Task: inverse folding
C-alpha cells in the first residue's frame, strides 16, 4: 500500500512570511508545504501562467509521489498521471530489444510510492491549485530584477518592492538568486550534449510498441552519442519524446519556443520509429550544462536560501530533477514547522542546507552518469553495456537488477534514492539536533553555565552550521566559491 495521508502536520507557533522567487515546480511545492505548516507564502513568477507550464513529459519517482500522497494529492495525480511499471531498453539505430525492467509490487511497497508519468503543465496545475487552496499567494508576471538579502527585499521589473522574513530562491538554473548567493553570475560549462524535448500524437506509436504504451511503459534507446526516452502522457493520447544528442552549440532552456525539427536531429533512428520522428512537433533544445556543487545555499546574511534547480541544476529530463526540487520544499517546511522564535531562523536554514546537500549531490552525480550512460558514443564500454543488458534480457531478468535480486545495485538505489523519505529525515534532524539545541539554550536561559562558568560559551560552542547530518548517501566533495570558474 502506498503512503498516503493528508492529515494536518505540526503547525508552527511563530508564523513568518516566506517570499519565494520563482513559481516553477520547486516554488509551488515549497509554498504549499509552508502553508501546510502555518507559514505565509508569496510566490513571484516572472512568466504568465501559460508560459510557466511546460507542454512535455515529466517522470515522478516513488520518493516524489510519496510526498505528494502525504500532502493529499493522490487522487488529483491519479486523474492526470499514468502509473508506470516497465522500462524497455533497445538500440537506437536498429531498435533491437536489449531487455526490460519491471518494478514489482514488492519492490514498490518498500518505497511507499509509485512511478508516474504526466505533463509538466499537469503537475504544475495540481501544485498551483493545492497551494492556492492552502492560502499561498501566487503572482505571475512578477519578474524579480534585484534581490537585497540583508534587507530581505526584492525589486520587481515594475519597480515595486516586496519584502518577507525569509527569501527563497526557487528561480532555477538561470534566475538571479543563484548569482546573489555565489557572489557572481556563473553559467556552468556546456557538456556537448543537449536534450530535445517534444510531444508526438499517440496514434504514431509503431505496432511493436503498442503493448508498452498499454502498460504506460518508458522506452529507452541507446545510440552512438544519442539516446531516446519516450513514454505516454495525456491519457495516452500523446507521447513525450525526449531526444539526447549532440548540442549544436546554441543556448537553450525549458520554456524556450520549440525550434528544432525532430527529423533533423533524429535522422538515423530505427526505421520503425520514423512515423514518430516525422510527426513530432518541433522540439525545444535544452543545453546540458555541468555545474560545480555550491558550498553554500544560504546567503551570508542568512535570509536567502536556494532550493530546486537554483541550488542544484540537474541534467534535463532526468527522473530525479523534479523530485529533488519537491523534496527541498518539503524539508524546508518540516524544519520550519518547529519555529517558535525569530532567533531560530538562521539555524534552520543552515540545517536545511546540511540535510539537503549530501542527498542532492549524490543523486545529481548519478543522474549525470545516467544521461551520459544512455548517450555514450560507440566504444567498447557501450558494447559491453548493450551485451550485458542483452544477456539479462534473454534470461528474462530485470536488467537494472543485475540478476542478483536483493543484493543488486537496483536494491541499493531503491533503498537510498527511491525509498528515502525526506520528511522523516527532517523529523529525525529535529529529534537528534534541534531539540537538543533548544534544551541547551533553555538551560542557558535558566542560568546554567559551561564548565568554565561562562554561560555565553555554552551557547556559542553549539555551532549549528558546523553540523553534518548523517544521511545514507555519500557526499561528493564541495568546492568553494574560489574554485568557481565555470
Ligand atoms: C517552463 C518550463 C517547462 C518545463 N518543462 C519540463 C518538462 O516538460 N519536463 C521536465 O522534465 N522538466 C521540465 N522543466 C524543468 C523542471 O521544472 C525542473 O527540472 C524541476 O522540476 C525543478 O524545477 P525548479 O522549479 O527548481 O526550476 P525551474 O523549473 O527552472 O523553475 C524556475 C522558475 O523560476 C522562474 N524565474 C526565473 N527567473 C525569475 C525571476 N527573475 N523572477 C521571477 N521568476 C523567475 C522561471 O520562470 C521558472 O518558472 C520545465 C521548466 C520550466 C521553467
Result:
Amino acid at each position: 500500500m502506498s503512503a498516503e495521508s493528508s492529515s494536518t502536520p505540526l503547525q508552527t507557533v511563530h508564523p513568518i512570511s516566506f517570499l519565494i522567487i520563482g513559481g516553477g515546480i520547486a516554488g509551488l511545492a515549497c509554498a504549499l508545504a509552508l502553508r501546510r505548516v502555518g507559514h505565509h507564502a508569496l510566490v513571484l513568477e516572472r512568466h504568465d501562467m501559460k508560459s510557466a507550464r511546460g507542454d512535455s513529459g515529466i517522470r515522478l519517482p516513488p520518493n516524489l509521489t510519496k510526498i505528494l500522497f502525504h500532502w493529499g494529492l493522490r487522487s488529483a495525480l491519479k486523474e492526470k498521471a499514468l502509473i508506470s511499471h516497465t522500462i524497455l531498453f533497445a538500440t537506437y539505430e536498429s531498435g533491437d530489444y536489449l531487455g526490460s525492467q519491471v518494478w514489482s509490487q514488492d519492490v514498490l511497497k518498500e518505497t511507499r510510492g509509485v512511478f508516474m508519468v504526466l505533463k509538466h503543465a499537469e503537475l504544475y496545475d495540481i501544485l498551483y491549485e493545492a497551494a492556492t487552496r492552502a492560502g499561498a499567494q501566487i503572482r505571475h508576471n512578477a519578474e524579480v530584477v534585484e534581490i537585497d538579502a540583508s534587507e530581505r527585499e526584492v525589486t520587481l521589473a515594475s519597480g515595486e518592492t516586496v519584502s518577507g522574513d525569509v527569501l527563497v530562491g526557487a528561480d532555477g538554473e538561470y534566475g538571479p538568486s543563484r548569482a546573489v548567493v555565489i557572489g557572481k553570475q556563473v553559467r556552468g560549462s556546456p557538456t556537448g550534449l543537449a536534450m530535445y524535448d517534444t510531444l508526438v500524437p499517440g496514434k504514431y506509436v509503431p505496432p511493436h510498441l503498442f503493448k508498452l504504451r498499454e502498460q504506460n511503459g518508458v522506452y529507452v534507446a541507446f545510440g552512438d552519442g544519442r539516446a531516446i526516452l519516450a513514454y505516454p502522457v495525456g491519457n495516452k493520447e500523446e507521447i513525450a519524446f525526449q531526444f539526447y544528442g549532440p548540442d549544436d552549440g546554441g543556448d537553450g532552456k525549458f520554456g524556450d519556443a520549440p525550434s528544432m525539427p525532430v527529423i533533423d536531429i533524429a535522422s538515423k533512428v530505427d526505421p520503425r520509429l520514423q512515423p514518430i520522428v516525422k510527426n513530432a512537433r518541433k522540439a525545444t533544445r535544452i543545453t546540458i550544462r555541468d555545474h560545480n556543487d555550491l558550498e553554500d545555499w544560504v546567503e551570508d546574511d542568512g535570509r536567502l536560501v536556494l532550493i530546486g534547480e537554483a541550488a542544484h541544476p540537474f541534467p534535463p529530463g532526468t527522473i530525479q530533477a523534479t523530485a529533488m526540487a519537491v523534496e527541498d520544499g518539503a524539508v524546508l517546511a518540516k524544519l520550519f514547522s518547529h519555529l517558535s522564535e525569530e532567533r531560530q531562523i538562521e539555524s534552520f536554514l543552515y540545517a536545511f542546507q546540511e540535510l539537503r546537500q549530501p542527498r542532492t549531490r549524490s543523486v545529481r552525480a548519478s543522474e549525470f552518469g545516467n544521461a551520459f550512460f544512455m548517450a555514450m558514443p560507440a566504444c567498447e564500454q557501450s558494447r559491453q553495456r548493450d551485451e550485458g543488458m542483452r544477456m539479462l534480457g534473454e534470461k528474462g531478468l530485470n536488467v537494472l537488477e543485475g540478476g542478483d535480486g536483493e543484493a543488486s545495485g537496483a536494491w541499493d538505489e531503491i533503498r537510498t534514492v527511491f525509498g528515502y523519505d525526506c520528511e522523516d529525515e527532517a523529523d529525525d534532524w529535529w529529534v537528534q539536533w534541534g531539540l537538543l539545541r533548544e534544551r541547551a539554550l533553555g538551560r542557558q536561559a535558566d542560568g546554567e553555565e559551561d564548565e568554565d562558568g561562562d554561560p555565553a560559551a555554552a551557547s556559542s560552542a553549539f555551532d549549528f552550521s558546523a553540523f553534518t547530518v548523517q544521511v545514507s548517501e555519500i557526499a561528493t566533495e564541495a568546492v568553494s566559491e574560489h574554485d568557481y570558474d565555470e
